[in-house]
Amino acid sequence: MSETNLNLTNDLPETLPEELFDILPEDEKNSEFIAVTIKTFAKDAWDRFRKNKLALIGLIYLVIVIILAIVVPMVAPYQFDTQDMTNRNALPSLVHWFGTDKLGRDIFVRIMYGARVSLSIAFATAAINLVIGVLYGGIAGYIGGKVDMVMMRIIDIIYAVPSLIYVVLILLVFGDSIGSMMLAICLTSWIGMARQVRTQIMSLKEMEFSLAAKVLGASNSRILLRHLIINALGPIIVSLTMMVPGAIFTEASLSFIGIGLNPSIPSWGKLANDCRALLFTQPIQIIWPVAAISLTILALNFVGDGIGEAFQARTR
């Protein structure tokens, strides 16, 4: 049998005649090839995020505001507290883009310096709330049982007292500084993050990958930090983006009613409070801080919505 097959193979011509087939052109050889682009998690999320035009516009606006807040107070010919009593309540001009206030201070420079204060408080408190909320909610959700019950009752007790009482007491005891304001905002703002993380962890810890990691001998801390929290990262980031506008609004509202930061610190809320007395005589002055607060919060909400769609599990 092997000799016969060998003879048949030797009898075949080395090349087939061209009349038996058509040569495929070079440009058609890969016509049925399906190209697949391999994307990382971050790349896939970014591609989905930039398809949301409002979210992209909001992100560009925030980047511009942050850059201006850093650069303008450094290069401007006026400091935020430079007074010119001969040029008070001036209208917008090429010299003073947003005009001057009742003490002759440049409003544009003060708005940009106020962006430093308000955004620093907002991002710092959001980061602190992220750490506290993720750890507290993660531990409560993963351990469960009596530990979870005790930790949740503590949250209920803290949440039962109006947050404004905490804020007023902290500002009265520790003074009206930036650190006191951050402490006052962080005292209760992490509760929502903790509850959301707890819910996510309680559902994720019963899934196959978590049980497999436990069977393989992974420690509880490794399962919680490297498996469960990582898989709950999407909702956590979305909640984080919503904390930033909340912190800005809280700081601005407290400063506006006069129980916020020190009068020498020109936050956006403090600038709006300074212009309140001139609402009917110089109404244009209150437009700038209110517009800065409103546009920034709106941009952050757009960015939060875009991140929520980018990390939505059903569409990934």
Structural summary, described in words:
This protein has helices at 2-11, 41-50, 53-75, 107-143, 145-160, 163-174, 178-204, 208-215, 220-231, 233-256, 268-274, 284-310. The chain is mainly α and 316 residues long. It has a single domain (47-315), classed as Orthogonal Bundle (MetI-like fold). Helix 4 (107-143) crosses helix 10 (233-256), helix 6 packs antiparallel against helix 7 and helix 8 runs antiparallel to helix 9 (220-231).
Low-pLDDT segments: 1-6
Mean pLDDT, as a whole number? 80
Number of strands: 0
Helical fraction equals: 55-70%
Instruction: Based on Cα principal axes, name the global outline.
Output: flat
Evaluate the radius of gyration.
30 Å
Q: Profile the largest sheet.
A: none
Task: Name the descriptors.
mainly alpha, 67% helix, 316 residues, 12 helices, MetI-like fold
Outline the secondary-structure elements.
Elements: H1 2-11, H2 41-50, H3 53-75, H4 107-143, H5 145-160, H6 163-174, H7 178-204, H8 208-215, H9 220-231, H10 233-256, H11 268-274, H12 284-310
Give a quick summary of the entry.
It is built from 12 helices and no strands. It is mainly alpha-helical and 316 residues long.
